[in-house]
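Need the bound structure for zinc ion, inputs here:
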Amino acid sequence: MPASPSAASADALAEFVRRLPKAELHLHIEGTLEPELIFRLARRNHVALPYDSVESLRAAYAFTNLQSFLDLYYAGAGVLLTEQDFHDLTAAYVQRARADGVVHAEIMFDPQTHTARGVAIETVFAGIAGALREARDRHGFTSCLLMSFLRHLSEQDAFETLEAALPLRKQYADLWIGIGLDSAERGNPPEKFARVFARCRELGFRLVAHAGEEGPAAYVGDALDLLHVERIDHGVHSEEDPALMRRLASQRIPLTVCPLSNLKLRVVDDLSRHNLARMLRAGVNVTLNSDDPAYFGGYVLDNYVASARALSLSPVEIGQLAANSLAASFLPDADKARLARDLASVLAQCPAP
Ligand SMILES: [Zn+2]
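Answer from helper R.:
Posting the output first, comments after.
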């Protein structure tokens, strides 16, 4: 990797990353709502927006922390009303992901953001699933859904959301395989959701949770021990606890790290000081993801390229991140093995940047 990349070498790096088959494992579908689509849906649904142009909305994306982002995020989601809206949102994400060389996506969605506005949970499922099934049938793009609870709301609210969704489980069995936990972490520790996660585990769902983004390393340990999650979303504060780091590495527990999100929300003040390379080199199963790409300035490819440049990741390390993403996915083992072979053959043929 050159020390001061020219435009040509930056293009070579982007092309290298694009060609690697990758999975995206930490993506909120509501966070892919681009300002242009917000305006289009607002017009279609006759929703008034407090911004007079796409530019003035984009200018409001100068967040100072997780909460200031969440305030705008929930306001943006207010234009999503019909099945077609959720379909169009999801189809637009799939198009972007495919262009970045993503072959499989595990997508979080927050029904509570929508049911609280009077949108039926059936509408949310139908729109998202319709677009994902089209992507699978037309392009071989595979995906699954992780229904996520908003942790600033009560555990009772999470239970009610689960009850409302369960009658749909059979209809969406090809997609809905897991449960997540997201939104404001501080003051909302994993233990708050221990009982609802225990119920989801009994029901056979795969489990993930955000932990150690703004919260401490202890939340990462608690997500593993109290919620029994298989993957940690973010987890960048794990480094505060050396024993936890050793556990993550020895048990190969995946972290779905989102560098541009961390930068935008000031979890780190400069990408060159992000700990993802250090954690990767310490043997932690780090994956790269985009989180809420419309709000954080980049999709998967941008996250790889920006991290590679800021942290001088070698081509072998970039390949390792892609391999980790496939191995940490919830795909069946046979699919993981096939994609790993595809990745190895691309790496063998690709000129390293
Ligand atoms: Zn997230």
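Comments: The longest helix spans residues 121-139. The domain at 16-349 is CATH 3.20.20.140 (TIM Barrel).
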